Amino acid sequence: YPRQHAPQTQLSEFNRTTIEAMVGSYTKVLFVRDPFQRLISAYMQSMGGHHRSFSTFVQGVLDRGQHKASLEAKPLVSLCQPCLIQYDYVIMFGFLRQEVGHLIHRVGLPKDIYLPEFRDTQVQWTYMWLSEQLFGELSLQQKKQLSHFYRGDLSAFHFPNSLLSD
To answer: What would you give as a GO molecular function for this chain, any one (predicted)?
Structure first.
C-alpha cells in the first residue's frame, strides 16, 4: 500500500476506509501461543530482581485486569483483533518450522531463503513440564479466574493441550 504517513503513524489515526485498504493489501500473519505458556514466559522475564511466587505473580495479573495487564500477559485477542482483521495465516508456537516453511512457499519467496533454527518444538516439552508444576501452585479460584481471563484466546484459537481449557 502506498505510504501516506511517517513510520510512527498509528493505524488508528486513519479513517476506516484507508485502514481497510491498507490492511487488505498485506499478507497478514499471526503467531499465537498458549496463553498459560505466555504467562509463564512473562513471569520468568519479570523475575529479574523479584523473588515472588508464580501464584503471587498470577494474582497481580488478575488484580490488574485485562485492560491494565502488561503487554506480555494481555490476552492475544485484545492485541491482535482477530475478529476485525482477517489473518491470512495463523501460526501456532510448537509448529513454527513446518508452518513458516509452508508460508514462505505460499507467498512466493525463494526456497533457498535463510531461516533461523526454530527450537519451539523442543521447548514445548520443557514448557509442558513447567506448566504442570506452576499450574499446581495455583489455587482453584486462580485457575478458574485465569480461564475466564483468557477465555477469548481459548475460544478464538485452538489450544488442545492448554491447562486453562479444563
So the answer is: sulfotransferase activity
